[in-house]
Amino acid sequence: MEENTFIKNIKDTFADLTSSFSNLIFIKSKLVGLLLFACTLFNFNIAAQGIISLIVSILFARFIGIKKDDPINKLYSYNALLTGFAIGFLFKVTYLSIILTFGMSIMTVLLTYTLSSILYNYFKLPVLNIPFTISATIIYLSSSKYSNLIVDSFYKQDQYNLEFIPGYIQGLLRAAGILVFMPYDIIGIVVLLAILFYSRITFFVTILSYYTGIFFLALLKGSIPLAFAEISSFNFILVGIALGGMFLIPSKRTYLLTFTGVLVSVFIIDATSVFWVSFGIPVFTLPFNLTVLLYIYVLGSVKYPMMNQTILDKPERSLVNFLNYKNRFDWITPSINLPFMGKWTVYQGFNGEWTHKGAWKYAYDFVIEDDNSKTYKGHGSEKEDFYCFGKPIISPIDGTIIDIYDELDDNEPEQVDKDNNWGNYVIIYSQLGYYIEISHLKKDSIKVKRGDVITKGTPLAECGNSGYSPQPHLHIQLQYSPYIGYVGFEFKFNSLKLVESGQLDPDVLQKGNKVVPLATSKSISRKFQFILDEEFNYDIYENDEKASELSFKVKMESDGTYYFSDTEGNKLYFGKDKDRFVFFKYSGDKRSYLRYFMLGLPSLSLTDGENFSWEEYLPDNLLTSKLPKIFKSFCHSADKTSGRYFKTKENVIEGKISKNKQVLFDTELTLCEVKGIKDIIINTENKKIWMTKV
């Protein structure tokens, strides 16, 4: 047991070390961290002081009570590394320089904790490496008073340079090398290769940002050699990595913003260097910090849609995760249920041909039609002849009754009340912040009163013909004011089926669409009520021969999200979204059989019934893609994989997986009678994969 604990501590220490080094350039990769650590070994002073600073910062943090699992650890560790590098770059390792490192490491921890708390609590901003910038500035200013320190920075290690390389490439290499305080060609090559191996997107923005900054510098200074000789040009690389691949989702707009961010940093470099040079110190990473923080704050405040809300270990994965949620889930547009039972027809939709115009274009009118598309029986001369007149209207949301009106007479067909446009109505407030207005209700039919707290499906009234209504129909709109007739806003209906096609939950209904609401089924819902640590086992057959086995358990993240986890650590996240079961995302190896659950059933409406279909976007990490993500970042719709799913009989869901409109394979999934998924079959041209529960 003691040996296992010792080995675990060694592994944790190694992980902390590589993580701290990779965080120097805002990358999450053990291999990159290891390569950066190897680069520093070419200068003993830098390597030694960096490690000493890291150790001191960790010990001091534990001493004052910062716990190991506190997120602040990652922030102060790489800031401490940079502080140690700055000391090692200037001075040889002596007992005096170690004392300096010891004290400045403690200061870096204190600065990191203080600044990160202030920036996050008041501005929701990251601290980046501002603590290092302050600490390094203090080191440069104070060390001029310490004559016993042995200077090392004047002794260049030119053996690590390759003088045959053109200046326009040397500039890039030395800017990359200075990220680890080693401004040499060979070190720069190693750093760039590590970035390239880690992420093609990060490598692209590194090159783009550096040469963009050099272009602006050369233009402003009037000298290309002076631009390439600028020692602070590494800030361009950091700006590119942070904006182009970390805090923003990679896209054409993001790359353009990165381009402008580099331009801003050029001015900051020149402005601050004028002031800093009087003290004989460089500007360090101040231009990078100031530029990135300004962009993050402003873009976050204006709700820029490409903000990276979930920063993963590399921009390619952040892009895949972003597209998965963007294409599959709309948590911005309000979504409500239909306000009636049975089959109704859209009489007028968004931006309709009659009254749904301008400020009131976001509204729906519904009627009931017979098989001959008529809305009435007989001659339709009486309001009672219309099929929808007097039909019950139910609440489409959970909410509170804000206002009602129930005193207007119902018009006879072809007559309208021009003075009371909305007729009798009910207005409901949702705790999500919007109001639902339902109009043209039948006189004396309203069954609720102001202040009533209601749930979906609560009877409200009956469909009528009051107000500006030439024939009985139902009007519904969403608004952000409790007053009748206020401007309407876009919304969606969920838990419905188009009668003609069987399609579920279309984004927008068109005139003439016949729709029926879907009720949530308790029996179907129970099939997907999984319990923590519940285990499932499957036998895997390929072409009718047993090939493998799959075992996974139900687990929960710290944020309350549930997922399936197999023995290899792959994760398939699931839950309920509105009135359907969904697999939110898959995180893991593309070779794992666990991903087939999401391919076979990315979502399912929790309703009884058959003969309905739906379409789903399938994220790129489920299947092997030939298109590199760097190209997809320029066109998010490129190489799109989608699935068309059909429930044609009880407990059986069939699917067709397509890419660029070409069918890749068919799927067939069978639900268990009690809980979970019984079988999944994947049919490709040359292979059949069958997963069956045991």
Description:
It is a single chain. The protein is α+β, with helices and mostly antiparallel strands. Among the domains are: 43-149, no CATH class; 334-490, Glucose Permease (Domain IIA) (Distorted Sandwich), CATH 2.70.70.10; 524-693, YmcC-like fold (Beta Barrel), CATH 2.40.360. The chain has 17 helices and 25 strands. The strands form four sheets. It has a twelve-stranded antiparallel β-sheet. Helix 1 crosses helix 4 (72-90), helix 2 (30-40) packs antiparallel against helix 8 and helix 3 crosses helix 5. The longest helix has 29 residues, at 95-123. The two termini are 35 Å apart. The model has no long low-confidence stretch (mean pLDDT 92).
Layout of SSEs?
Elements: H1 2-22, H2 30-40, H3 44-63, H4 72-90, H5 95-123, H6 130-143, H7 167-177, H8 185-198, H9 200-221, H10 224-228, H11 234-247, H12 252-276, H13 286-301, H14 315-328, E1 335-336, E2 344-348, E3 363-367, E4 392-394, E5 399-405, E6 424-429, E7 435-441, E8 453-454, E9 459-462, E10 474-479, E11 492-493, E12 496-498, E13 514-517, H15 522-526, E14 535-542, E15 545-556, E16 562-566, E17 571-577, E18 580-587, H16 595-600, E19 603-605, E20 612-618, H17 629-632, E21 641-649, E22 652-659, E23 662-671, E24 677-683, E25 688-693
Parallel strand pairs: 1-11
Antiparallel strand pairs: 2-3, 2-13, 3-10, 4-9, 5-6, 5-8, 6-7, 7-10, 12-13, 14-15, 14-25, 15-16, 16-17, 17-18, 18-19, 20-21, 21-22, 22-23, 23-24, 24-25
Helix pairs in contact: 1-2, 1-4, 2-8, 3-4, 3-5, 4-5, 4-6, 5-6, 7-8, 8-9, 9-11, 9-12, 11-12, 11-13, 12-13
